């Protein structure tokens, strides 16, 4: 079984600045709860922060760019989640290779994707415009794996204890 | 019936009914179609490719060259299926192929009478004149006469799936070596994938009667599988063929998930294509027995000796009761024993004078088979002594060919081992080790030891330490062999599937095709669907003999993936039909659909092309209405697809000065400038606007088509050329729903939806500001115009797009689509995709004065090349005239329509409802000097030849007063 949770109302901020821009920002591919947001490392000195709409991260305006609504986001969990994701993702998702806290920018179902693992829940994000295609790809991947799709909810980041 | 009363691995409690050529038969679960056909006494199952000769079953697995059938029907019809790998299921429907009107009486068998004429190269020598006949006469006739099965014409109703996997050790083949390798690796804790193309694991242990640890070998197989199945890091993949070795430890495999079922259950894919990334690979794919070429060796009833043994042991099917075993080695003698034990009368024909006596059978030592008899199946075997032996099966053992294909997919060339009379793996791809029979170890004990050692080493190399396996006890059976490839005589077949004979190869050699690659192509040896798995070594030996060289010197042809045929479905997975590629939808997609829009693909984007209203009879009605609405009142267009990039940081202005041909650092916050970027070679890359939102933040727009390219260009300029600049570049295309509002009433409409002051003083042309909108929305306003009208672009967060569109509609504006957008821009003479085609300079587009002379920028130097500043270059002009179509060529009036006279082409054209005429844009040599003259418009593709008037490219409001109003 795999549970698919789509999100709506996704606050998003791109951070760009020095490594110590905010305490706790990951310095390599990975994610961390930072200042009420899920901060995903995307490039040296760049992070994408997923958060509740309206949150303003405590950095100078020149080091943040608001991008609310720019990405679609899905959470997936369940016993067959790695098998489902393996149908579209080329990454090694074995717990030894992709442990909780890991994140990656990758390509799946011909889409550029961001992926991170929070506990046993994978988060998969693509550009908002590709959201319908990613949803369709996940639906197709879920066939035969007892995919249960929940109603979309507003995004709320993981607590700092992560 | 030739089914033995007992024995075999079939489940006799589960009968399976099936039909072959419309006639019903019965087999059992665990049968293949081939074993079931044999068990029902059928030997004739197909016709050969070229001569339509009767053919039976040769082999036991995927190497089968003869028994190709059409399986299933309708959309699931699958041609060229090897009966030896098709698992029998209830209701299976199979047909023989490449015959008419029936398998037993095939009219095209007349081809066989012309065999001497249909030799290698026959087509090339015969069908030469007249050349025009080739495509229309010769090729269709040849294709009709020679061929395989028929592909389904109905859509495939099944679904397919892709799968990615990573492992420490991939073991290919689940015979004794593969099982030992998998077990040794798995016990170390390594992640192991064991892939086996058969539906049952065990390899030759399924087909032979051997002992391991003093018990039947299959007991050991069951014990190993039980342990492997209980190890969490082990994945067993039966029915899975690893078909290719690719770069960096990547392997392609196809899993036949539901091929053994009448229909896949609704949620089960028919097949699954795997991409497996393995740190180490153990290739334990076994070996395939090769034939001996002798006259009549293709007659139904002539079979691989190892296959005959397999049909007896695994399927309890006795291929014949009067058997001759023609063997050049000890392995064939095991088949003789199996036949004898199964109750057949057996004669062994062994070319070795020292051939041992065999109890319960006659052995003819020092003899050879030189021919066979029988019409549609074997009835007798002819020996070189002149003796004729009545027989209904002839088991041929010519030695073993290691299945080394994957070891050679990355360029490793096999090495000839004369002692074993076999090609052995050369240098395999990095990370691969070859074990067992695939490495030339043809006895059981050697295979087990080799596999165990290879598996352990592979695991260790992948970072998992383990203990050596306690080697299972087994014997090395006799494996003596005298190399024998062919016996002289006509109609001695080497490649059964392509009907290539010994004579064909000899002829190729005589005609100069001495290279193995040339001989292959000339004769088609090894080019059929079986890729010469049984044929190639025999063919090479004959070519070597014919050219006076050794086999090692002759070499092999190149091995390439796939190892066995792979369906397109398994490669495509779910990406078929409407899911062939992903699509991008704007935040207003659903809104537009609700308001009558139809959509056009623009790259991956789906854009609203027009919004049809009731009563409009065609797209032109909608587009004309939308254009006139914009010119006379106000309209709004979803332009969210335009690329949007924020360039942020203290050095943002410096970077933009470097990438734009014009200067951006002088732009004041709150102002916008039109800009162009050049490529390094001086041609225009893209155009767009650049808004300065703050001292250290710019908002750059690009065309829809070039959004990714410009982003890449900016990153390249920063990361490679100007890494010292402190700047961040962010694609914000998805963060903004962007709506263009245009028309003389645009300001009035805008004032109804925003609380911002939108007066000309507060928001003049080429200015921007943050704005609050009715309903609490926040966004940005940009006073820019693509249409030539008083116009704005409104940016709001995506989730606010529909609310904004509703308010604009309520305020009196109407939506317009990309077609109207195109008409408006042509009327205004703005460059678009047709003009920004990668071959135009700024000067060509009338933008030459934008090139800064006071700063450096990308493309500056090469833009000054003589060819790029040649005054005779085609430049942007307007055209007026009926029949204008994009792509039409321009010629001087009266000039002949030849390339030398070509003056340019039409880049865009439309009907202008404002001007009530067809207008266009064009790139025309010396175009500015031709304004006011007439030009010939020649469109050979669509049959138009007319004239147009050359005009300035701006048809509407050339002074720009509307824009600034």
From TrEMBL, chain A:
Top-rank taxon: Bacteria
InterPro entries per UniProt: SoxG
Listed name of the protein: Sarcosine oxidase subunit gamma family protein
Organism (species): Falsiroseomonas tokyonensis
TrEMBL record, chain B:
InterPro entries linked to this entry: FAD/NAD-binding_dom (IPR023753), GcvT/YgfZ/DmdA (IPR028896), GcvT_C (IPR013977), GCVT_N (IPR006222), Sarcosine_oxidase_asu (IPR006277), SoxA_A3 (IPR041117)
Annotated keywords: Oxidoreductase
Organism this protein belongs to: Falsiroseomonas tokyonensis
Pfam families to which the protein is assigned, alphabetical: Fer2_4 (PF13510), GCV_T (PF01571), GCV_T_C (PF08669), Pyr_redox_2 (PF07992), SO_alpha_A3 (PF17806)
Keyword Oxidoreductase tagged: yes
Superkingdom of the source species: Bacteria
PANTHER family: AMINOMETHYLTRANSFERASE (PTHR43757), AMINOMETHYLTRANSFERASE, MITOCHONDRIAL (PTHR43757:SF2)
Domain GCVT N-terminal: 588-855
Keyword Oxidoreductase in annotation: yes
Aminomethyltransferase C-terminal domain sequence ranges: 878-957
Residues in FAD/NAD(P)-binding domain copies: 168-409
Residues spanning the membrane: none
Domain annotation SoxA A3: ranges: 491-573
Protein name: Sarcosine oxidase subunit alpha family protein
């Amino acid at each position: 079984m795999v549970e698919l949770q789509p999100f709506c109302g996704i606050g998003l901020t791109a951070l760009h600045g020095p490594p110590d821009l905010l305490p706790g920002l990951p310095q390599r591919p990975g994610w961390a709860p930072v200042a009420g947001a899920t901060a995903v490392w995307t490039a040296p000195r760049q992070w994408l922060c997923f958060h509740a709409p309206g949150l303003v991260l405590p950095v100078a305006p020149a080091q943040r760019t608001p991008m609310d609504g720019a990405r679609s986001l899905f959470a997936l969990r369940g016993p067959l989640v790695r098998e489902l994701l393996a149908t579209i993702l080329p990454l090694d998702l074995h717990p030894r290779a992709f442990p909780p806290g890991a994140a990656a920018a990758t390509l799946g179902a011909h889409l550029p994707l961001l992926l991170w693992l929070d506990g046993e829940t994978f988060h998969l994000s693509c550009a908002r415009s590709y959201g319908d295609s990613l949803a369709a790809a996940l639906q197709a991947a879920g066939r035969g794996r007892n995919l249960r799709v929940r109603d979309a909810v507003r995004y709320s980041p993981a607590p700092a204890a992560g | 019936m030739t089914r033995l009363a007992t024995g075999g691995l079939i489940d006799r409690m589960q009968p399976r009914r099936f039909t072959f050529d419309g006639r019903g038969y019965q087999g059992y679960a665990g049968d293949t179609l081939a074993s079931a056909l044999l068990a029902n006494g059928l030997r004739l199952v197909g016709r050969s490719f070229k001569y339509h000769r009767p053919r039976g079953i040769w082999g036991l697995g995927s190497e089968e060259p003869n028994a190709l059938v059409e399986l299933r029907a309708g959309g699931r019809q699958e041609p060229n299926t090897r009966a030896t790998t098709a698992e029998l299921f209830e209701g299976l429907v199979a047909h023989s192929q490449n015959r008419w009107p029936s398998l037993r009486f095939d009219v095209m068998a007349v081809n066989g009478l012309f065999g001497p004429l249909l030799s290698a190269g026959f087509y090339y020598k015969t069908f030469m004149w007249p050349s025009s006949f080739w495509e229309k006469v010769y090729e269709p006739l040849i294709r009709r006469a020679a061929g395989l099965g028929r592909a389904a014409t109905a859509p495939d109703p099944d679904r397919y799936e892709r799968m990615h996997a990573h492992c420490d050790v991939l073991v290919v083949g689940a015979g004794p070596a593969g099982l030992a390798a998998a077990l040794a690796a798995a016990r170390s804790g390594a992640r192991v994938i064991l892939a086996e193309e058969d539906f049952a694991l065990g390899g030759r242990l399924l087909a032979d009667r051997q002992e391991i640890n003093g018990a039947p070998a299959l007991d050991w197989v069951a014990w190993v599988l039980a342990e492997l199945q209980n190890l969490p890091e082990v994945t067993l993949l039966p029915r899975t063929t690893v078909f290719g070795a690719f770069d960096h430890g990547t392997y392609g495999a196809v899993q036949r998930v539901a091929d053994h079922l009448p229909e896949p259950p609704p949620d089960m894919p028919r097949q699954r294509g795997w991409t497996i990334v393995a740190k180490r690979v153990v290739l334990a794919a076994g070996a395939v027995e090769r034939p001996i070429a002798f006259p009549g060796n293709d007659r139904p009833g002539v079979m691989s000796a190892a296959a005959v043994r397999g049909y007896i042991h695994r399927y309890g099917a006795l291929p014949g009761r009067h058997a001759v075993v023609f063997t050049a080695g000890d392995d064939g003698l095991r088949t003789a024993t199996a036949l004898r034990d199964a109750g057949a009368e057996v004669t062994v024909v062994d070319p070795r004078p020292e051939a041992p006596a065999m109890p319960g059978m006659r052995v003819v030592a020092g003899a050879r088979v030189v021919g066979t008899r029988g019409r549609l199946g074997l009835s007798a075997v002819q020996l070189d002594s002149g003796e004729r032996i009545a027989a209904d099966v002839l088991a041929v053992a010519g030695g073993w060919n290691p299945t080394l294909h994957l070891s050679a997919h990355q360029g490793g060339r096999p090495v000839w081992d004369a002692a074993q009379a076999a090609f052995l793996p050369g240098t395999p791809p990095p990370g691969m080790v070859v074990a067992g029979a695939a490495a030339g170890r043809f006895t059981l004990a050697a295979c087990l030891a080799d596999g165990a050692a290879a598996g352990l080493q592979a695991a260790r190399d992948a970072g998992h330490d383990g203990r050596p396996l306690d080697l299972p006890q087994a014997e090395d059976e006799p494996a003596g062999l005298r190399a024998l490839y062919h016996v002289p005589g006509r109609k001695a077949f080497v490649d059964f599937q392509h009907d290539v004979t010994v004579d064909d190869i000899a002829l190729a050699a005589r005609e100069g095709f001495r290279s193995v690659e040339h001989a292959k192509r000339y004769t088609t040896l090894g080019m059929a669907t079986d890729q010469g798995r049984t044929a190639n070594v025999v063919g090479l030996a004959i070519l070597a003999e014919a050219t006076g060289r050794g086999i090692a010197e002759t070499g092999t042809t190149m091995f390439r993936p796939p190892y066995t045929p792979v369906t397109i479905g398994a490669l495509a997975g779910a990406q078929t039909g409407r899911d062939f590629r992903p699509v991008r939808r704007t935040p207003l997609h659903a809104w537009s659909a609700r308001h009558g829009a139809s959509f056009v693909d623009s790259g991956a984007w789906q854009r609203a092309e027009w919004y049809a209203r009731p009563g409009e009879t065609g797209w032109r009605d909608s587009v004309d209405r939308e254009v006139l609405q914009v010119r006379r009142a106000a309209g709004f267009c979803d332009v969210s697809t335009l690329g949007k990039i924020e360039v942020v940081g203290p050095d943002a202005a410096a970077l933009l000065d470097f990438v734009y041909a014009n200067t951006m650092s002088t732009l004041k916050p709150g102002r916008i400038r039109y800009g162009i970027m050049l490529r390094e070679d001086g041609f225009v890359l893209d155009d767009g606007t650049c808004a300065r939102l703050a001292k250290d933040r710019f908002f750059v727009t690009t065309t829809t088509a070039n959004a990714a390219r410009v982003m890449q260009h900016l990153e390249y300029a920063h990361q490679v050329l100007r890494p010292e600049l402190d700047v961040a570049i962010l694609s914000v295309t998805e963060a903004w729903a962007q709506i263009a509002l245009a028309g003389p009433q645009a300001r009035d409409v805008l004032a109804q939806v925003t609380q911002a002051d939108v007066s000309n003083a507060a928001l003049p042309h080429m200015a921007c500001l943050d704005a609050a909108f009715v309903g609490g929305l926040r966004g940005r306003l940009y006073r820019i115009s693509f249409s030539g009208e008083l116009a704005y672009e409104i940016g709001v967060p995506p989730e606010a797009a529909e609310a904004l569109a509703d308010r604009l509609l309520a305020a009196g504006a109407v939506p317009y689509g990309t077609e109207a957008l195109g008409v408006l821009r042509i009327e205004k003479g703005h460059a678009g995709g047709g003009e920004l085609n990668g071959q135009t300079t700024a000067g060509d587009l009338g933008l030459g004065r934008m090139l800064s002379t006071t700063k450096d920028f990308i493309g500056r130097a090469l833009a000054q090349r003589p060819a790029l500043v040649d005054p005779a270059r085609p430049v942007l002009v307007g055209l007026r005239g009926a029949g204008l179509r994009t792509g039409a060529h321009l010629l001087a009036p009266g000039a002949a329509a030849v390339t030398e006279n070509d003056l340019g082409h039409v880049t865009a054209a439309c009907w202008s409802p404002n001007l009530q005429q067809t207008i266009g844009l064009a790139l025309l040599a010396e175009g500015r000097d031709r304004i006011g003259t007439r030009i010939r418009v020649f469109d050979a593709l669509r049959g138009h030849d007319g004239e147009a008037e050359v005009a300035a490219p701006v048809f509407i409001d050339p002074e720009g007063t509307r824009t600034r109003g």
